[in-house]
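Contributing new complexes? Match this layout with uridine-5'-diphosphate.
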Amino acid sequence: MKNKSELVFMPAQGMGHIVSMVEFAKRQHDQHQRFSITILLVKPFHPPSYNLYVESLAVSDTGFRYVHLPPPLPLPPPPQPQLQPPPEQLVLTSPEKNFSDFLESYKHHVRDAIVNHVLSSSPATTRLAGLVVDFFYTPTIDIADAALTFLFFPSGAAFLGLMLHLPIRHTELTVSDPNSVTHFPSYANPVPTSVLPAFLFNKHGGYTCLLNHARRFREKKGIIVNTFKELESCAVKSLVDSTESPPVYAVGPLQDLAGDARSGSDREEIVKWLDEQPPSSVPFLCFGSLGSFGPPQVAEIAAAVEKSGHRFLWSIRRPPPQGVFETPTDCGGDYDGFLPEGFLKRMENRGMVCGWAPQTTVLGHAAVGGFVSHCGWNSILESLWVGVPIVTWAMYAEQLSRKERTW
Ligand code: UDP
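Output block (do not edit by hand):
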């Protein structure tokens, strides 16, 4: 019998993390027939679109094994609890730390799943060839042979370079001066401190948590990054040349272009509406899985699209209530009290608002001529793929976010 090799993938929850990893797994499966693939899944906090995508995977014909991990075990209390805000506040003051703690709490389940589902149920001729883990899962390095573990980085090479440089920057940093600049080797130009991602300034555990992840990046056998060298030549070169990094593999762009499984319920109506619009006439406004605005800003955007006189397609989601950490929710067609009075009536022949959009389908539609985006890495790749220019509105995660600044 021919020897088989088992590859285990551990995506972090969130559309921006899981899709590219699953696409990478599919490629490994198609190109190297000897691999069996297992994907370990955790249940997300809230997002329904993620759940739909995961459900669709389970019934798809990928031939993968999907293991749903049971709910996590409670984490031991931190050594100095008084330095940590309680969990319900941490989730708001430092989403990154909260997200990391949540995934770390799955550590034992991950070990059990590998032992019980992968190793013991595979034929004797199967060997564990590798673990591919999202970068938020660096604590799993403790449970697997480091020589088998590859880090998967769903963002770009420039940001990966920023992360890899954090431990060095940390030892050199004396003052967090907003007017200073940082020389990250992966960026062609020095970066003003004022435009760095918010987590670098988070004093509630966010910065320390990402720094600790970054410290562990270099323990991996290799780093797989969803980019390509023609797009980020300077960044990819700096990573390949770096002595701080394990081997880096630029394998992108990894995209689910059909995207049917994560289209959302408005798909047909949106495509029908776009079919009726002239070529390149519609700007598409969409802000990722976490982007949302409160009523005052929604009113400003509505006034802007109305005054512009242009057609538009606008994906709107309602923000969670103040002080609650949840993902934004679709309005289900009910925009009363959220959009300005009469806006939908006045715009009915010119624009369309919707909830979760079939983004890849929309961007690839001939009627769409521009994209107003929060600049999540997947959104950037998807837009570049079909040549739609982006109006950038950076908001969160690896992007600048003024909201969370402490200075
Ligand atoms: N997406 C979508 N419909 C939406 C919003 C997002 O299909 O209404 C998809 C988008 O195509 C992309 C992913 O969700 O693949 C978002 O990933 P990205 O890295 O752009 O941003 P994130 O949500 O991780 O901040």
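Reviewers usually confirm one structural detail per submission. For this one: The domain at 4-250 is CATH 3.40.50.2000 (Rossmann fold).
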